[in-house]
Design brief:
The protein is globular. The protein has a single domain, classed as 60s Ribosomal Protein L30, Chain: A (2-Layer Sandwich), CATH 3.30.1330.40. Helix 2 packs parallel to helix 3. 30% of the residues are buried. It is α+β, with helices and mostly antiparallel strands. It contains three helices and six strands; from the N terminus they run βαββαβαββ. It is 25% helix and 25% strand.
């Protein structure tokens, strides 16, 4: 079974030499999504809630491009630069996901790919096999 690259709706991924997602069979694996606007600028520097909103908007767009959706996510890995933001992460999960909740791992890291980033989220979701 071959992995198929998902054509994501952003222009900036070439700048970082990444694919936003791959489809393998009935699964889609996303790259870590962050608070990067479609034009490549960071959204909400210093504001975790604003960054979560942009990150989840990006995640939804990538999943849609893959033929999936947030409703089909069953696993997320969340990277934060400060675990003090955990209550905001829980609020995000309640707002963007529905029960049964996706399995989750949350990890505090020293830094993310760009110094202004506070959160990055990657997901695995189901998709109808083409």
């Amino acid at each position: 079974m071959d992995a198929q690259v998902v054509e994501a709706p952003f222009d900036w991924q070439e700048q970082y030499a990444i694919s936003q997602a791959h489809r393998v069979g009935h699964l889609v694996f996303t790259s870590g999504q962050a608070a990067i606007a479609p034009d490549g600028t960071v959204v909400g520097a210093g504001d975790l809630r604003a960054q979560i909103e942009q990150t989840m908007t990006n995640l939804a767009a990538v999943l849609e491009a893959a033929g999936s959706s947030l409703e089909r996510v069953f696993k997320v890995t969340i990277y934060v630069t400060d675990m003090a933001g955990f209550p905001d992460i829980v609020d995000m999960r309640r707002r963007w996901f529905k029960a049964p909740w996706p399995s989750d791992t949350i990890v505090q890291v020293a830094a993310l790919g760009l110094p202004e980033l506070l959160v990055e989220i990657e997901a695995v979701a189901t998709v109808d096999e083409a």
